[in-house]
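Researcher: I'm comparing several assemblies side by side, and this is the next one on my list. It has 410 residues spread over two chains. Same procedure as the others: predict the full complex and return the structure.
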Amino acid sequence: MSATENTEHLEKELITEVDTSAHGTEETAHKEESPVTQILNDLGDHEEFSFGPLHADILPVILYDEGQFHFYGNRSSMEASGDYVMEHHHVVRATDHQAPDMNLSITNMVAFQWMAMILLVILFFTVSKKAKKSGEKAPSGVHNFFESIIVFVRDDIVQPNIAGNAGVRLLPYFLALFMFILVLNLIGLLPGGHTATGTIGVTAALAITAFLVINYTAIRESGIGAWFHHLLGGAPVWLAPLMIPIEIASMFIKPFSLTIRLFANMVAGHTVLFSLMGLLFVFQSFFVAPAIVGFATFINLLELLVAFLQAYIFTMLTAIFVGLAIGEHSHDQEHAH
Amino acid sequence: MEGLGLFGAGIGAGISVLGAGLGIGRLAASALEAAGRQPEAAGDLRTTMIIAAALIEGVAFFALVICLLMAIA
């Protein structure tokens, strides 16, 4: 009696065990197999610093879970604590394998942004020191290079779109925006580098600053009343029920499209590069390799163009939106008669 | 059924790229024509063209991101 009960129990346990293990392997196999997810995973963000062959477990992990913060020096100390484990490159709870409420870790992309910031601060302090020293003399070297970029941002991006005092006041913002995006894009093109602008969080944060600048400048330049008046879009008052939702939507669509444009451009180029490199491993032949390397080099050069172009377009569109937000009032009145 | 989803994503990506290609092609053709008629305005035309191309490209990327999400999910 007890023996049969025992075997029954054992059988049940075995069945459930086989069930769960089969389910588990099936799930992992499905996740690991798909090349699309593999490529996207390589392009994505991680809780580990990596630059080419260099992998360093030096970034702190910060989690907010069940009402309290958890700080860990790095990923392995987090795993050593036993509360959280890594699963498919994601941090999950050790108990129920669910993601923590909020993962605020200093990730790889954050580290790359810090690298870009440090680089820019060093470069611009060098340039400003040189500019002060050289005085009236013609600029040379690194000073010359950056002065041409600064003049380009001022004369080709900011001044034509934002008239008067606001353009002068906003120039540092646009310069920082342009240089920051450019440096992030270019770091991503270094062998082994990661493109922080290829993560949607980074581009979304940049677009949120653009959103704030657009609306702050509009309110500051033409007053809160004019800002509300813009919501009519210049149409007669009885069209307000139609115009106000459209104008409010367009206010949010602008930064949204900025976000998607930069993100998708950077991801698309890198996905094409990854796919071309993947062909090397598909064919494994000496005859195909030179053609693929040639194509990859061409795409890399194209990416160099895209890196400049996207930094330019993001800054340019932000400048245009600011200009529209300021000038719409007088613009409407011109058209009213 | 999963295959059908991938099929839809692929076709969607193809159509959206077709539309963007047509749009940017027309844009570049008109800009070149205008620059040919009035070469001194070529600089302004280039700037305006790049911005319009970016806007078209942005719409195409919306579609592509949706297709990509369909393919992964």
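Model: For your comparison table: Helices of chain B lie at 2-37, 42-72.
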